[in-house]
Amino acid sequence: MSIESFLETLTQRAPYRDFVTHVEERPARAARDGRLDRPLAPPLADYLARRGVTLRVHQAEAITAIRAGRHVLLTTPPASGKTLAFNLPVWERLLADPAATALYLYPTKALAQDQWVALDALARAVPAGIAPAVYDGDTPAARRARIRAESRLVLTNFYMLHQTLGWAHQWERFWSHLAVVVIDEAHVYRGVFGSNVALVLRRLARLLDAVHAAPQFVLASATLANAEEFAHQLTGVHPLVIDDAADGSARGRQHFVFYNPEALGPGMASAHQETARLLAAGVEHGVQTLAFAVSRQLAELVAREAREMGRARNAPWADAVAPYRAGYLPSERRALEGALREGRIRGMVSTNALELGVDIGSLGAVILSGFPGTMVSARQQAGRAGRGVDASVVVWVPFSDPLDQYLARRPALFFGRPHEHALIDRHNPYILSGHLLCAAAERPLDRESAARWFGPAAGEALDQLQGRGLLRDTPRGLVYQGRPAAHQVVSLDATGLQTTVKVLREGAFVLETMDWTRALSEAHPGAVLLHGAETYVVSSLDLTHSVAAVTKQRVDYWTEPIKSVDIHILEEHRAREEAGLRLCWGDVEVTERVVGFKTRRGDEVVAQDALDLPPNTYRTRALWFTLPEEFSRQRRLEHANLFGGLHGAEHALVGLMPLWVLCDRRDLGALSVWHHPDTGQATLFVHEHAPGGIGLTERGFLRAAALAAATHELVRDCPCQVGCPSCVYSPTCSNDNVPLDKGVAIEVLALLAKIPDAQAASP
Amino acid sequence: MPAETGRAPHQAGGGIFGVGDYWADRLADGAVEPAADAPSVRAATPLSADRDRRAAELLALVTARARGRRLDDLYPVTDTATPEGPCRTIRSQLADVPPVAGDPKAARRALGGALELVWGVGPWHAAALRMAGTESLADLAHHPRFGAEAARVWSAVAAADPAAAFWAVRRRCGGAHPLLWCTRALFDPSDFLFVDIETLGFFGVAVILIGVAEWRDSVLDVTQYVAESVADEPALLAALAQHAAGKQALVTFNGLAFDVPVLAARAAYYGMGEAARPLRALPHFDLLHQARRAWQDRLPDCQAVTIERELLGIVRPDDLPGAYVPPFYEAYQQEGEVGPLTYIIDHNRWDLAGLGRIFTHLPPLALGSGDVD
Question: How far is residue A469's CA from residue A273's CA, in Å, rounded to a whole number?
Fold first, then answer.
């Protein structure tokens, strides 16, 4: 069998076997059938019988709970039939009540389109006057009125919902009969975006309450450590969780291989090269293989290399290897998906664009090139292998990066119970206040209902908005009296810093828009801007009119901003102390300044220029700690590099933080200083980039010891001598990783690990 | 045990984040982020520094002109009683916008010959019927298949039931059809209510003034319902509903796409959906569509101001585009000086006069081939 021979090649033959550090085998499992409390409505039962579908345990459980009117959260693995499990009871409901409506929410337009196909097929097979329809930015104006008037099942996304809530009178029929809200891929709604989405849902709930509708929530999500709490934060309801324990789907045997290019020593092999080699080997063995790359460029690069390896061997499959990523035309993407499904493409390299939902059939092998940042993504990507009961192989190729290498050495953590917490902060003052403006523009808002739907922090925000004349108190409640329309200014993706900067090409054509902060670091004069695989050079940045001018120019160099960061402590909210080390969490003011930029050709810095740009100042949340006096004094006496140690500890800590908190490394910033004016001591700060913070550092503060212990172990066990990208180096360090002291970093981390945590230590 | 100090997050420090200033700045910037759902590339708006400068000068001028005065000092203001409380009302008259009597006979002739007004009769059918000698709805009334429907439409036209005739055409041909414009001649000039609103923007923002006008003999009576703050908006909407109750038809410029949907949305916002109902129930002549049909070849654009200037020879003194209404109203709210509001009131009155003039100036049957889709 080809899968078996591919696995054998990986584990038995040189050079592959030398890189294999772990193989986890997951045995095959037979399906467990479920039983319903009562049979499905006859047309639905017929529909399943015709298609030869048998309901499994978790599906039966979900159907029973949804029938009973419970809110439900499904977190069973990819390909376990979650969609069917909620579509059936939703259909039953819509069959039983001919006025009832359902709202399906997806993270992307593409996914809504994809799911519409399935729902439309169900609507044809089991007709009930439901007329499922996608209603999003692409829906032609001519069709919209009809969908609002007639459709009983609308698929959309949160951007559209955000824009649509102000038109509730046009949706009166739909809203007042809304029976079910389905939120698919719910784990996506975390961080800044998730906090915004949670507040859009509160706005929806408030409008529904006014028309006496209180829908049932059905969520589907990847596995999370805090799935139930997260769903509650997101929707405001307490769902019944149906998780892996109830999963009754059949699955085939799967081998999960850790293939670590660092196994022969740091820097001995390239992860991209190895990925291409593995892809070629899989395809060579006749196994249809999908590799996930962490960026668009890498997807293209790896596909090209694999193809060239094939051509060098005159392999017939060389041209059956293709890249796939966002940015391709929809028609190109459909064609590629079809070719993969039908087996005409034998090897594909994709970005995470293929991670969610899109139907591409089952694959023999999946390669993860680098850790995709979260276990949630890693599981989703691995879930693309071995749909059905066929055997499959997953190969993970970790990068030389602290998080990758930490996990590569801890398979037990990798395959153990989920440890990632998805965070939502509905009380972030900036996010909350934006949605209060929207809510007041959708329906006059009284303070009592504001507290009910938006929480206790709403009162103070309303005072401030009223104080600035954006809201006016009227006998009917607070009324929005600003302009333009509130929902046009409130963005779901960002807490949004000030103005949007337009990037103008040749003085007129808008190439793209970016927020002010990004413009300072990426569109300063002299910067090289990448857009659609072309290079543009910025000739001027006019901050008064928020316009950056660029010219298209082919250059063989790239630029990198040099930033300086200052942190001023505004207020300390919480603190813990142990043996002289003091750990705090509170509000800070961060001042970031782009002071210059480096021009690089390859790895070499060919020029360094100064810039005079205004600082970007914002208020957010941070955790910080100061070292014990005695420790600092001792190290100084020994002429140890105290600052280099703090600096190294900072890099490693931030690198591992996503293990505990579902976030991107870029959501956090850090600063270490040997003498901070507010503390008077050597201090290490980790701050959030989102103004107002979204709970990342709060959780970091609560779990500091566990985080420090893990980081300590990582740096201590790293085989390098003086530090490397797998431990204390940071790819984004403005100081080019100077100075660093691995030894002192280990000592600093050991000290921090002694602060007992507020919660039991895991992972 | 480690010492733990502190208090619950979010109870503290909300104020230091300064969300009032934050949003005030963002809104003032007009920093409209492209919605993620919208096309990612938008045309750059040409900066109009010159216009902004003129607007600022005008704002200073109108503010100074009326400094310290009250609305009542400058206009004959009365209060109209509504279920939502009193509504500040300014009445005035325009003597130089007389009505032009329509020609109902000609209109009946045109409508009576439009066989296509009957469901099922398309261009092909109509041509065939005409060839066979059926030239009017009256003739068609005897047709075995189309007779009943033809009789119904013809009786609406012939029996001088203008609303019924309007709806017969509206349902069959849509809101921009030249035959629809024909039905206006069946109404009496005093049946029409001209409507023009002023708002703080496009959608999702407050209506601050509703102006209406109607002919009494040869004079155009203007009534303006003015909000002294956003809190007066429900009273404005109620006053309009009362006013519209006695009328037979609405006349607007772009009201199908803007004024009426905005009024409906605002009424729904306050949970007073019934206030918008009469607006939707009345026949509605949107002059923008008729003007486009009649004049778009002759004019650079079909804005009301352009039509007034190019075709009617009227140049407004001191007038800026409606886009400057929101900042003027905001200035009035912030400084409490009534000057900027008077500017908005006068601007609205000009709009109403223009509406009346364009209405009388439009040719009886605005070209068009009479095709039915």
Answer: 59
Q: Are B276 and B267 in contact (CB under 8 A)?
A: yes
CB atoms within 10 A of CB A236: 16
Q: Are B235 and B229 in contact (CB under 8 A)?
A: no
With cut-offs at 50, 70 and 90, classify the pLDDT of residue A747.
Answer: very high
CA dihedral B36, B41, B46, B52 (to 10 degrees): 10
pLDDT of A147 strictly over 80:
yes
Give the H/E segment covering residue A306: helix A296-312
Cβ-based neighbours of A596, under 8 Å, separated by 6 or more: A561, A562, A608, A609, A610, A611
Nearest one of A79, A56, A70 to A247, comparing CA atoms? A56
The model's pTM: 0.86
Å between B156 CA and nearest CA of chain A: 29
How many other C-beta atoms can be found within 10 angstroms of the C-beta atom of residue A145?
10
Name every chain B residue with its beta carbon within 8 A of the beta carbon of A456: 10-11
In a 3-state reduction of DSSP, which class is residue B122?
Answer: coil
What is the number of helices (H) and of strands (E) in chain B?
A: 16, 8
Q: Say if the Cβ atoms of A573 and B9 lie within 8 Å.
A: yes
Render pLDDT for B74-118 as a digit per residue (tens, 0 to 9): 999 999 999 999 999 999 999 999 998 888 888 888 888 888 888
Strands B219-226 and B207-216: antiparallel
Contact B2 A576 (CB under 8 A): yes
Q: Residue B303 to residues A362, A594, B297, B327: CA-CA distances in angstroms?
A: 59, 47, 13, 21
CA A657/CA A697 separation, integer angstroms: 9
Strand-pair category, A683-688 with A616-626:
antiparallel
> Domain coordinates of chain A in residue numbers?
2-22+250-415, 42-246, 429-489, 500-555, 567-592+617-752
Q: Give A666 to chain B, closest Cα distance, Å.
A: 21
Do B156 and B273 touch, CB atoms closer than 8 A?
A: no
CATH class of A42-246: alpha beta
Nearest CA in chain A to B46: A508
pLDDT tens, residue by residue, A81-115: 899 999 999 999 999 999 999 999 999 888 898 89
| CATH class label, B52-63+73-78+85-96+188-361 | alpha beta
A2-22+250-415 shares its CATH topology with A42-246: yes
Alpha helices by DSSP H, A221-270: 227-235
Domain extents in chain B = 52-63+73-78+85-96+188-361, 104-186
Edge to edge, what strands does the sheet with B77-80 contain? B77-80, B87-94, B219-226, B207-216, B192-199, B249-252, B284-286
Fold of A2-22+250-415: Rossmann fold (3.40.50)
φ/ψ (deg, to 5) at A428: -55, 120
* DSSP, res B16: G
pLDDT in tens, A420-439: 888 899 988 889 999 999 99
Answer whether A460 touches B (CB < 8 Å): yes
Three-state SS at A600: strand
Model confidence at B10, pLDDT cuts 50, 70, 90, reads very low
Residues written for chain B = 373
What does each C-alpha distance from A644 to A406, A611, A678, B119, B366 come to in angstroms? 22, 27, 21, 85, 82
Question: What stretch of H or E contains A256?
Answer: strand A254-259
More confident residue, B197 or A1: B197
Helix (H) or strand (E) holding B52, with range, is helix B49-65
Chain B interface includes A449 (CB < 8 A):
no
Q: Which of A473, A453, A454 is nearest to A463 (CA)?
A: A473
Query: pLDDT per residue over B119-128, tens digit each?
Result: 888 888 888 8
